Amino acid sequence: MNGLERKHDFHTVYDAQAMFRLILSATANPSREVNIQPFANKLYGPFPHLLAVAMALLDNEVSHCVRENSDLAEGIAALTLSPKEALKAADFVFVTDQEMLEDAVHRAKCGTLRDPHRSATLIIWNHSKEKCALWLTGPGIAGAVTWHTTKLARLALQAREAQGFEYPEGIDFLFISESGMLAAIPRLVRWEDAV
């Protein structure tokens, strides 16, 4: 029996609510990582960590786009009622390939001055092994905090900064590691390399 034929153990109400609370906690505390591995363990097939996030965030009222990953796209389609949408209009964008990252950041919707919350959230598979340290400032951070992360996350933040979004426009990031740790970097958080 392969992973796609097994029944998922993820509870669509209780586990989804618990996952949602973890994501909210990470978003309210940028750079603080939360462990979603126990929820990923309840899902089968490719990218169970991203499927767990999809189960918590997607429903029939929000749209999504999966960048060039048919296995993940099929999993999300099977588990949520979220409609597929083009990248430039999707509410949530899933990126598993570093080659697709900068294009996704460039083309994702950034909200408007009147409705900045109508921006996209990019859910990024943060599988890079190259490490770096960044200083973060902004909402949810008292002063500044050092975030130990990967060069892939730095690339995403650099690509976002290059867009020159007008305050308070922007895009939000959720970074998910292979070990099941999730970190959120909201659109108004600023960064620089830690010395």
Distance between the termini: 50 Å
Q: Outline, from the CA principal axes?
A: globular
User: What's the pLDDT, averaged over the residues?
Assistant: 94
Query: How many distinct beta strands?
Result: 9
Radius of gyration: 16 Å
**How do the helices and strands follow one another from N- to C-terminus?**
HEHHEHEHEEEHEEE
Q: What is the C-level CATH assignment?
A: Alpha Beta
State the domain count: 1
Helix/strand structural class: alpha/beta
CATH architecture: 3-Layer(aba) Sandwich
Describe it.
There is one protein chain. This protein has 195 residues and is of the alpha/beta class. It has a single domain (7-186), classed as Rossmann fold (3-Layer(aba) Sandwich), CATH 3.40.50. Helices cover 31% and strands 22% of the residues. The protein has helices at residues 14-28, 37-40, 48-57, 70-79, 98-107, 151-162, and strands at 34-35, 64-67, 92-95, 121-125, 131-137, 145-150, 172-176, 181-185, 190-193. It has a 6-stranded mixed β-sheet with strand order 1-8-7-4-3-2, sandwiched between helices. Helix 1 (14-28) packs across helix 3, helix 3 (48-57) runs parallel beside helix 4 and helix 5 (98-107) runs parallel beside helix 6. 39% of the residues are buried.
